[in-house]
Write a structure and sequence with these properties.
Elements (H helix, E strand, L loop, with lengths): L39 E6 L9 H8 L2 H4 L2 E6 L7 H6 L5 E4 L1 H9 L4 E8 L4 E6 L13 E4 L4 H9 L6 E4 L5 H5 L4 E5 L3 H7 L4 E5 L9 E7 H6 L1 H32 L5 H16 L3 H4 L6 H13 L22
Parallel strand pairs: 1-2, 1-3, 6-7, 6-8
Antiparallel strand pairs: 3-10, 4-10, 5-8, 5-9
Length: about 325
């Protein structure tokens, strides 16, 4: 099974997909006093430890947006070996975060997830190289790239750009071998690894996979078909509060980064500041400029599905309207 890993994250995240029985929690109800409404207990699992890519979620939590929406929210951090798809499908969390291709591949594997918002209009996965080394990705032929085994976007790039003469080296999360080889390239998240190189005095540049034609949304918020149908009011409350959090994070990232650092003290505030700035056009640009954060296009989803079918990763196309919905976004 192929994975959607980029840079430091989620290697092998899709290899462990299992068909599971859905067991989802019920909504809260009014308490006996009639003076207030009980908060509905829900949780969401992210795709890594707390970082700027989750800024809107933590903003919504710390500023009380989830509570205002009637939700008693818990955020579970992802990390190595954590499969958010399994956790959500098994009912241990109502909401999850992942990549767009993960949603399509999960559905093929019997896990009926539905995307309910895209916090990134452009996925932040990319290919980093030493500055000035490459002007076109086809120039990677004859050189090394550090990449995870079976990474989906790399399978697409190999086929689309005839990268049959690239030497694939195992990606371990360390950039030491990349730094030592001025002709090498490596998979990254553009919100993270370039900062590490900046700190080490290594000049780099990168290709964004989205701009190379692998157009998938990043950090999709999702739930299961069953939960969405049974609790549309909770899903609506969750999405609207999350988007409110992202709108807040845009101009208050320094405040929320401090909140996230309490959850992930290994990530320095300087790195978070870099990530927040780097991801700004990816979150708030594109279709989000006219339609707001979270918006998803049928064309993007259909195009991604076609690419996965062309690569042999999906067997058949399914009605794309079953895969995602914008109906829970603010104003819908």
């Amino acid at each position: 099974m192929l994975t959607t890993t980029g840079a430091k994250k989620k290697i092998g995240g899709l290899t462990a997909l299992l068909a599971v029985t859905l067991s989802l929690t019920a909504c809260g109800s009014n308490n006996s006093s009639g003076d207030s409404k009980e908060l509905t207990k829900v949780s969401q699992v992210t795709n890594w430890f707390a970082e700027p890519e989750h800024g809107g979620q933590y903003a919504a939590l710390s500023k009380g947006f989830y509570e205002e929406a009637g939700l008693d929210m818990t955020i579970q951090s992802g990390g190595p070996g954590v499969s958010s798809t399994q956790i959500v499908a098994g009912g241990k969390a109502e909401f999850g975060m992942g990549q767009a291709d993960e949603i399509l591949l999960a559905r093929q594997n019997g896990i009926p997830l539905v995307a309910i918002a895209a916090t990134f209009q452009k996925n932040p996965q990319g290919i980093m190289f030493h500055k000035g080394q490459y002007k076109d990705i086809t120039e990677l032929n004859g050189n090394k790239i550090f990449v995870g085994s079976g990474v989906v976007f790399w399978e697409y790039l190999k086929k689309a750009y005839s990268l049959d003469k690239v030497t694939e080296m195992k990606y371990t999360g360390s950039l030491a071998n990349f730094v030592a080889d001025p002709t090498a390239a490596t998979q990254i998240y553009v919100t993270s690894e370039p900062f590490s190189m900046q700190q080490e005095g290594v000049d780099v540049d990168y290709f964004l996979n989205y701009d190379l034609g692998y157009k998938q949304y990043g950090n999709i918020l999702y739930t299961t078909e069953d939960y969405m149908k049974k609790h549309p009011d909770v899903v609506k409350a969750y999405v609207e509060a999350s988007i409110k959090g992202w709108d807040y994070y845009k101009t208050n990232s320094e405040e929320i980064n401090k909140v996230m650092q309490e959850k992930n003290p290994d990530l320095k505030l300087e790195a978070m500041a870099f990530g927040a700035k780097a991801q700004e056009p990816l979150v708030y640009g594109g279709d989000a400029e006219a339609n707001g954060v979270g918006y998803m296009s049928k064309d993007i989803w259909s195009g991604l599905q076609d690419q996965l079918i062309d690569m042999g990763l999906l067997k058949d196309a399914e009605p794309i309207d079953d895969v995602f919905t914008n109906e829970f976004l603010p104003g819908k």
